[in-house]
Amino acid sequence: MTFDPIRLGVVGLGRAFVLMLPTLRNDARVKLIAAAAPRAESREAFEAEFGGRGYASVEALANDPEVEAVYIATPHQMHAEHVAAVAAAGKHILVDKPLSVTMADADNMVDVARAAGVHLIVGPSHSFDPPVLKARQIIESGQFGAVRMVQALNYTDFLYRPRRPEELRTEEGGGVLFSQGIHQIDIVRLLCGGRAKSVTAMTGAWDPERPTEGAYSALMDFDGGAFATLTYSGYAHFDSDDWMDNVAELGGAKGPESYGAARRALQNLDPVAEAKLKATRTYGAGTVPPSALSNEHFGPIIVLCDRADLRLRPGGIDIFGDTERHRVEVPLNAAPRKSVIDALVAAVRQKIAPPQTAEWGRASLEVCHAILDSAQTGETIKLTRQCGIEYREETQ
Ligand SMILES: NC(=O)c1ccc[n+]([C@@H]2O[C@H](COP(=O)([O-])OP(=O)(O)OC[C@H]3O[C@@H](n4cnc5c(N)ncnc54)[C@H](O)[C@@H]3O)[C@@H](O)[C@H]2O)c1
Questions:
Q1: Distance from the CA of 203 to the center of ligand 1, in angstroms?
Q2: Is the full-model pTM beyond 0.90?
Q3: Does ligand 1 come within 6 angstroms of the Cβ of 11?
Q4: Is 321 helix (H, G, I), strand (E, B) or coil?
Q5: Rounded distance from Cα 182 to ligand 1 centre (Å)
Q6: What is the pLDDT of residues 12-27, one digit of tens each?
Q7: What residue's CA is closest to ligand 1, atom 40?
Q8: What is the CATH number of the domain that holds 96?
Q9: How many CB atoms lie under 10 A from the CB of residue 146?
Q10: Are 292 and 328 part of one and the same domain?
Q11: Tens of pLDDT along 356-370?
């Protein structure tokens, strides 16, 4: 039986959309039929490639009767408004991470999606990476007992990638927490069952030229007794891809020549020139998405269970049991983020929500804020808006 593809609209044809292109071009279960974008040249590029309709406003796209679901890939601070517009038209939503910047917006988005009776999936996020989903499946099988402790590390050049000015202002969603921490939190929550209890953390904002958080370390505990440490640095010195088989975050090969490239590209650029440089990486500017040789990853992650430790790698999972170790291979799909489309198809066509719902996105956002609050106050922050893995979609 042939599958009737989901008719998808997209809002925002920037960097995030470029990174979804290999998936959207290779997964026949979705068909891009419309886009909303303020720049005429990106709308034209979209119409030329996909033969769909370009709109100047989100409302016009959402009210296109052909559109079944909408991928929202606009800057974080716009997600709430764009989700509200799409939900009002009764369309299902895939919104890129983070759900929003403020908790008030997140609360509102949970309510809006519920009231409209539409699915809202927060993704892509690295919690959809196939090795993460496979680890979750292994944990759920119970064969190695309960999860006791997780360690997640990531050392990147995030703070030195070209940015819009607000991406360097914490209160507007800038810094590593909202863009990067959210991935690590999503992964750790998925591995530990979702319901975190408290957070104790410290953050670093050490470059006066880029005065937002570039690093953090956090300790979280969970219902059931597991605890996790999360460490992230975006200061572009050590790169933990070195510990991930020299595979870059998006699954490409990382060679030694890339060392220092992010800082070199930014040398002597003022904020306007930097935003322009970012715009060269956007859709319609001739940018080719990076090609993946392996699954995406978000740095080294080790999960300690009662009877084995699981080490997540781009190509699979190393399992260190009591007396033997072995490898579970996790091959790369032709559509690199196939698991995100699996979740969308299950939600839209079978009414099965993945774990990464609006409530889930709000819970992960709560942890981002708790890390910032804990660092500022020196206190342990109790969490109140957590949720578990209520529904799940097995994708492997
Ligand atoms: N999951 C990932 O791998 C990933 C990677 C990068 C970014 N992101 C997320 O995607 C979102 C966008 O980030 P980005 O880096 O792509 O930013 P970007 O600036 O490259 O792209 C944002 C796009 O939104 C468009 N836009 C602005 N206002 C709009 C409106 N009213 N209607 C329609 N389009 C509008 C802009 O023209 C721009 O093309 C952020 O929330 C970010 O966290 C996710």
A1: 25
A2: yes
A3: yes
A4: coil
A5: 16
A6: 999 999 999 999 999 9
A7: 75
A8: 3.40.50.720
A9: 15
A10: yes
A11: 999 999 999 999 999
